[in-house]
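Model: You mentioned two targets. I'll fold them one after the other.
Researcher: Yes, keep them separate.
Model: Target one:
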Amino acid sequence: MAATHHTDATRMLDSRGYAGPTIHNTNPLHLLETPVRDRITESYYWKEQCFALNAATLCDKAASLTYIGGTYGQQKPTPFLCLLFKLLQLLPEKEIILLYLRQKEFKYLTALAAFYVRLTFETTEVFKVLEPLLGDWRKLRRRTREGGWRLDYMDQFVDDLLVKDRVCATSLRKLPNRMILEDLGHLEVRISPLGEEIEEIDRDEDEVEEVNGTGHAQVINGESNDISD
């Protein structure tokens, strides 16, 4: 069974005469770079843990993840990256990916779905689907390239997906500036989830004017207190 699984992946990776479904006009597996693909298909996790997965059982496998990351140490792929590659092989229906993304119990399943969305969805959908997660502050463990560990957060991971050109050993196609999409009418103006807190800070600053040795009145809560000599 594992040999068949490996053969299926190899067949999909072969560009000669490929007639399967495409993402952004390319073989979905080619969304990951060749060295990364090779390391994934040769890894123990891929051969032993991914061979019989379908969209349902991959969900269970992703629910057991304990960290995110790309490659580490001697370019060893993380289980997170292997499952992303398996998703690209399976190409689940969009509704299934959105279920992965929006469930609340398994945060690493959410992160995996977010990564898949960034790679495969159209530009406007990427913003619409991922931006709500900028208000998700759940902690994530990340495996670093050096093989160590780093604390991350879901909102930071998603922000990286939206603004960076490389995340978890994966090159990402460049997204247009969000303001351009707003000007074209493809996106509504985004209201930051921190907007109310920022407005409250601004109001506090308006109410309190500190005096730096000028001898002028200090205004506190709209009332003048003369501090001149």
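Model: Target two:
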Amino acid sequence: MSSDDQYFLDMLSSIPNDVKKYSLELADAIERQTNSVSAALRESLQSATWIPQSVKPPRPPPRRVVPAIPQGYIGHAQEWVLRHQALTAAILAFLGTGGFLVYRKRKLYGRKRRAKRASNGARKEVVVIAGSPNEPITRSLSLDLERRGFVVYVVVSTVEEEQLVRNESRVDIHPLNLDIVDPTSTEQTINHFTTHLLSPRHAFPNSTPHTLTLAGVILIPDTTYPSGPIETLSPSLWSDTLNTKILATTTTTRAFLRPLLSFHARLLLLTPSIIPSLAPPFHAIEAATVAALDAFTSTLRAELAPANVPVISFKLGTFDCGAVGGRTHLQSSPEHATRADILSWPSSVRATYAKNYVAQSSAGSTRGCINGGGNGGGVKGSPLRELHNGVFDALTVKRPKNVWHVGNGSLVYDVVGKWVPAGIVGWMLGIRSVGLGREEGEEGGEVSVEWEKVERMV
């Protein structure tokens, strides 16, 4: 069959479709025209006056109007929600998040936390706290852990510290004499301590013997750090601080590594978080010390992870320690301490740093990030119960986190230090540019004027 024949057949097959299409269009046009003529004719007959009423076609029934029902509170609320969908979503998100946080906090506070006991009901879990008994956090943690069912040993190095521990008059809080300066004595003490844990003991006559197990070692370096311009920090001050906070901590950790590995216990290191996170001026020693301890903790965590020994870092904010420490000591005026620091500086150093030092101390104390948390600052710290619950959970949960943020401002200032530019942080803390004398002969006058300004601020 040729192409002309095929084309002719295609034309013939399309004729029925065209006929159907045009027929439907014609029918629709006729229907529309008929309806229009009918409506016009009906309207003309209804309006004609010469036709009797009985002959006229009946009018269409009037449309029924349903009266609007007044809306109640629910109806108005639904209408408002439809008009403000974005605002409604934000309110629901805020309320949902707040409700979840409140529920979670109540659940954490309401849960009972008690240490495991032996089959005969005696205490069997031991916690070692390596921190100064003079520190409020050390004393508070030892009392709380003993109350929750642990046997607590506090590391001491002097007779005075041992007496402080015994003055608590608690049956299960004991001093552990450890001279980290003498490696031989330290090794003998740790061996004796391990033997003491593994020795069978009887809770009462004719009871089933049980042994103790090491639950964890808590390291609490001294939280008091010197502050001031680097120009005023002597090498001996740096050496003393590094020895007492870094070297003592690493040496104590090294001494307890073998018991930690033997009992698969946990190592907790408690360090301040706010100053190291912000790294503000005049706090070089604290920032450098905590950074070194963090690096040490990360390395130790990687070394002990294959042996299933968790190394946990606690980032501490501010706490209200008024219930456990001497209230007079804890609430001493930071203004007086600031003034005493500035008076010890040379006159040239005062002219350069005193104004910003006072401004930062005042702003930091008001915001609770410097000299805050029960130490006379403007922002009240978190209750120590948060620290107690966090330490207990870190010692007992199956899979503890590597880093715990506890205390007022710990997590917030950590985020601020990572994401907010340093210039904005300094401006928030009151750091401003300082004009210095242009000539040596004018230095005395400039210093006296600046010092008068500082005295008025203090």
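Researcher: Noted. Anything on target two?
Model: The beta strands are 125-131, 151-156, 173-177, 213-220, 266-272, 311-316, 319-320, 382-383, 403-406.
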